[in-house]
Amino acid sequence: MEKRKLRSQAWFGGQDRDGFTHRSWMRNQGFPGDVFDGRPVIGICNTWSELTPCNAHFRELAQRVKNGVWEAGGLPLEFPVTSLGESNMRPTAMLFRNLASMDVEESIRANPIDGVVLMCGCDKTTPSLVMGAASCDVPAIVISGGPMLNGRYRGEVIGSGTAVWRFTDAMRAGKISKQEFMDAESCLSRSPGHCMTMGTASTMACMVEALGLSLPGNAAIPAVDSRRSELAHETGRRIVAMVHEDLRISKILTRKAFQNAIRANAAIGGSTNAVIHLLAFAGRVGVPLTLDDWDRYGRDVRTIVDLQPSGRFLMEEFYYAGGLPAVLSKLAQHGQLDEDALTVNGHTIGENVKDAPNWNTEVIRDYERPLVESGGIAVLRGNLCPDGAVLKPSAASPNLMRHRGRAVVFENIEHYKARIDDPNLAVDETSILVLKNCGPRGYPGMAEVGNMGLPPKLLERGITDMVRISDARMSGTAYGTVVLHVSPEAALGGPLALVEEGDWIELDVEARRLHLDVDEAELARRQAKWIAPEPAFKSGYQSLYVKHVLQADRGADFDFLVGCRGHEIPRESH
Ligand code: FES
After folding, report:
1. Long-range contacts of range 521-529, CB-CB < 8 Å, 24 or more positions apart?
2. CA of 89 to the centre of ligand 1 (A)
3. What is the pLDDT of residue 12?
4. Phi-psi region for residue 480, left (φ > 0), alpha (ψ -120 to 50) or beta?
5. Which atom, in ligand 1's list, is nearest to the CA of 86?
6. How far is the CA of 87 from the centre of ligand 1 (A)?
7. Which candidate, 107, 474, 134, places its Cα nearest to that of 278?
8. Which atom belonging to ligand 1 lies closest to the Cα atom of 199?
9. Given this model, what pLDDT does residue 491 score?
10. How confident is the prediction for the chain on average, in pLDDT?
11. Structural contact between residues 147 and 313, judged by C-beta atoms closer than 8 angstroms
């Protein structure tokens, strides 16, 4: 078979001034001249940063990847891209997901890269890297950083995020002291790695594995487990072969792959954030995927992974139980996996997970004994959300899935903060908390404030859940009967903007209905009076964001980034 000329040879292959220039400068790093002989050049796209604690161990992990690349006959070249740390970035790391994806896309296209290893970990580092690589359509493989070890506090196992929400509520209700709260700090995050609940980071690691973008088993191996290093080494080996096979990301990210990921999300009780990210992925590769597909493919799937925030365990137990292959194997056995979907190792997903063992049926339950009968993401429609809204049934309270209540309205997050602790707030457990102006444009980045805390006076009475509705997102580690991503958002004049204090709202999850019980004439009157909020930013990146961000039902990508622009070699300029 004739050897295919690789992309990188447009830089390194010439016996002329340009070839000299490209090779000469690279050789200042000590590379012998023969490494530019036409072997695959593998970009190692690293989101290491000390400001992204979940990815702070990535320099060592990158070295493992490089070992594999060298061994397989490739040339590994590591490069940094914008790293989005969920725990530190303000107002929210999501504000920068699309920006980081541009960094990834343009870094790949502008450089002599034939294939890329995407080093993903903290929540937004996974989608930003996948989106960027998808728009270039080069061979790409994900190695995740892996979850932290379980948190442990006073003999109790505690999970990232989920324990923080619980402790915060307990402190606000006066059940634990401030000192007890502070003592839990170092007990929660006690090893390298990302959040170890089934939050957004773990969910996205499962999503890339279900999509076929990583080697089997990638999602669950703890960050500090030596098998994570082994997998990184194997990932380095594999990307070299993928370049030889021209196994580009568009061959992996097919509609079948998305259907598998949606079902996997239902089975694991995954984060609602995955809805937005996967819609954005599909947009980048031109796969027609809609919000309704989430309901269509996820609805009949049972949640069988008993992990926090929906269940009891954490990622460490999930790995010991068999990880995602064990889950996908069960889906396959029940006809809920498209087994033909191709994956990065060159095998189909069905071949990869056939007979994958399950070592702990408490953590990964039998299909006949699910955690939630109908998992998945419920996509709601109605006059309050004409373009859809989502709710995660596995994290919601069964008694609130059908509920009619009066709205307590917060015009924005500041309004919420100013009112929620007021003992005179007219609210009881049957009320519905409505938060406006926290969608993609209203609160640029669509902050994770949808699971707004309950009023202290209800918490003190032992109330732990209420129906909450907003155009915001919610942390993957959060729980509750929370309607999110209401589209169109309030800041665009969507019906959410028209809700007033005391309006009746009806939620019926089974019927997938969210209804504002106000007659149409009254709504038209309110619409006529509605004034769009002033955009918070008139210049800089945030003004670009507000101008170009799409609504949640389209993945909140930028309108000008949707689509695949390929990896055509930019022309030489010197
Ligand atoms: Fe990084 Fe949760 S803060 S994954």
Report:
1. 523/383, 523/495, 523/498, 526/498, 526/500, 527/493, 527/498
2. 11
3. 97
4. left
5. 3
6. 6
7. 134
8. 2
9. 97
10. 96
11. no
Mean pLDDT across 561-574: 88
CB 482 within 8 A of CB 508: no
Atom of ligand 1 nearest to the CA of 53: 1
Task: Locate CATH 3.40.50.2300 in the chain.
Answer: 39-149+191-353
| Residue type present at position 80 | P
| Token pair 């028209």 in the structure block, residue | 498
Atom of ligand 1 nearest to the CA of 55: 1
Residue in the block written with tokens 């589209």: 487
Ligand 1 is surrounded, with C-beta below 6 A, by: 54, 86-87, 122-123, 160, 194-195, 199, 201
With a cut of 80, say whether residue 210 has pLDDT above it.
yes
In angstroms, what is the span from residue 381 Cα to ligand 1's centroid? 31
Question: Within a 10 A sphere around the Cβ of 17, how many other Cβ atoms?
Answer: 10
pLDDT tens-digit profile of 429-455? 999 999 999 999 999 999 999 999 999
User: How many whole angstroms from 163 Cα to the centroid of ligand 1?
Assistant: 13
pLDDT tens per residue across span 371-391: 988 888 999 999 999 999 999
Examine the pLDDT at 2 and tell me if it is beyond 80: no
Is residue 179 predicted with pLDDT exceeding 80? yes
Q: Which residue CA neighbors atom 1 of ligand 1 most closely?
A: 122
End-to-end CA distance of the chain: 35
Q: Which residue has the tokens 């269509």?
A: 296
Q: What is the pTM of this model?
A: 0.96
Give a three-class secondary structure readout of 472-531. Answer: CCCCCCCCCCEEECCCCCHHHCCHHHHCCCCCEEEEECCCCEEEECCCHHHHHHHHHHCC
pLDDT interval class at 574 (50, 70, 90): low
User: Structure tokens of 500?
Assistant: 């007033």
Ligand 1: residue of 54, 158, 474 to mutate (most ligand atoms within 8 A of CB) is 54
Cβ neighbours for 540, distance < 8 A, ≥ 6 positions apart: none
Given a cut of 90, whether residue 239 has pLDDT beyond it is: yes
What are the phi and psi torsion angles at 413 (to 5°)?
-65, -30
Judged against a pLDDT cut of 90, whether residue 41 lies above it is answered with yes
Ligand 1 atom with the smallest distance to the CA of 201 is: 4
| Structure-block tokens of residue 290 | 């809609």
Is the sign of the CA dihedral 386, 392, 393, 395 positive or negative?
negative
Please state the CATH superfamily assignment of the domain spanning residues 378-533 in this structure: IlvD/EDD C-terminal domain-like (3.50.30.80)
* Residue intervals in the chain for CATH 3.50.30.80: 378-533
**Ligand 1 mean position, distance from CA 83 (Å):** 12
Superfamily of domain 39-149+191-353: Response regulator (3.40.50.2300)
CA of 531 to the centre of ligand 1 (A): 37
Give residue 122 CA to ligand 1 midpoint distance, Å: 5
